[in-house]
Design a protein that fits this description.
The protein is an alpha/beta fold and 277 residues long. It contains four helices and 16 strands. It has a four-stranded parallel beta sheet, with no helix packed on it. The chain has a four-stranded parallel beta sheet with strand order 12-14-15-16. A three-stranded parallel beta sheet has the order 2-4-5, with no helix packed on it. Strand 15, helix 3 and strand 16 form a beta-alpha-beta unit. It is elongated and about 65 Å long.
């Protein structure tokens, strides 16, 4: 295992232990929602527009949550560690999701992000190992780092045209993800975005020549096609390769699909030329 891979392993192993370990209900859960310890159902009252940070954190017994129309904000880590919730409907009125709002909700199987949300925050659904699909809205601009990292059963993600920034490690360790398509609107794709997506077979990169992050496909041993329709070969941050050095054989096994007539440019460009060697 390379030093980079060891670093990633340590990073992802340590991060979950930074979560909240609240042992009592928050004032919001108990006084505003009338929730008692051990309750499996909760209804956030009509008229509530903001759910505060850590409002239901570590309520592991909670299985069903009803949110009111008119809700605008879900705070940081609001449902962190709610391991019993299998589904949750977010009202169309929601405009802001807090960092890690549904992190470590290990039973949550799907999430539809409302149309008014412009940014998916960091760690939104990280470590949700039973999540299968995520629906992202038109008008979304930003997907924060580690937003869906360690979602081991995640099979489908739609990234709408108009997204401009995708943070680091967004889909790291998503072992069931098979294909990903990054729209041409993305001008910043950060490092390790798909690291250790062990089932990934095809990836479509933005059709522009903006800088790409480091080690995008490290640990993607089944990747067999990369599509890059940028007229000019994009450069990579720090000149890093696409794969780890221990995976050099993947440059021969993975097909690079580019625009007709662009072979001379790509075959001479740093990193890209390794696909032609």
């Amino acid at each position: 295992m390379s030093l980079i891979r060891k670093y990633l392993f340590v990073l992802f192993t340590v991060l979950p232990f930074f979560s909240s370990t609240a042992s009592v209900l928050s004032e919001f859960a108990s006084k505003v929602c009338g929730m008692m310890s051990g309750d499996i159902v909760v209804t956030v009252p009509e008229g509530v527009t903001d759910i505060p940070d850590y409002a239901f954190a570590d309520c592991s017994s909670l299985k069903e949550v009803t949110l009111p129309e008119g809700l605008k904000t879900i705070g940081d880590y609001a449902f962190l560690g709610c391991t019993g919730i299998e589904m949750i409907r977010l009202p169309d009125s929601v405009e802001l999701l807090g960092e890690g709002a549904f992190r470590e909700c290990s039973a949550l199987r799907s999430l539809e992000v409302p149309q008014g949300v412009k940014k998916v925050p960091r760690y939104l659904c990280a470590w949700n190992e039973n999540m299968v699909c995520v629906s992202l809205p038109e008008g979304l601009k930003d997907i924060g780092s580690h937003a869906f990292a360690y979602c081991a059963k995640l099979e489908r993600v739609n990234i709408p045209q108009g997204v401009e920034h995708i943070g680091s490690n967004v889909w790291s360790m998503c072992g069931s993800l098979k294909e990903i398509e990054i729209p041409s609107s993305v001008t910043e794709l950060e490092s390790y975005a798909f690291s250790d997506c062990s089932s990934l077979t095809k990836a479509v990169l933005p059709a522009n020549n903006h800088l790409l992050g480091e080690w995008l496909f490290i640990g993607c041993g089944l990747l067999r096609e990369i599509v890059c329709e940028s007229p000019e070969p994009p450069t990579f941050d720090c000149g890093s390769p696409v794969f780890d050095e221990s995976e050099a054989a993947l440059y021969r096994e993975c097909r690079l699909t580019i625009l007709p007539g662009k072979e001379p440019l790509y075959s001479a460009a740093p990193v890209w030329r390794r696909f032609f060697e």
